[in-house]
Amino acid sequence: MGEKVVLREQVKELFNKKYGEALGLDRSVVVPYKLIRGSPESIEVSGFPDDVPFRNPNTYDIVCLEKILQAADKMTFNVKSQLQ
Known about the structure:
- By secondary structure, this protein is mainly alpha-helical.
- The protein has 3 helices and 2 strands, in the order ααβαβ.
- The chain has helices at residues 3-22, 33-38, 62-70; strands at residues 43-46, 76-79.
- The N and C termini lie far apart (34 Å).
- The mean pLDDT is 93.
């Protein structure tokens, strides 16, 4: 596997973990990117790199993936309204 694929999987795991924490769970939960895209006010992400928008990790280049992983400890998700 290439480096970008590995980084992408690490970012997916990070987002799933942070999303699960935001829901009050002690496990990872798959982030519903499509629902969030349709209702972006439903989730607030803080501690994210300033020049990187929150979206599905499949869309990031390697530079963005690295920046996200470097900011992982500062990053938090806040689910403001349930997605359906």
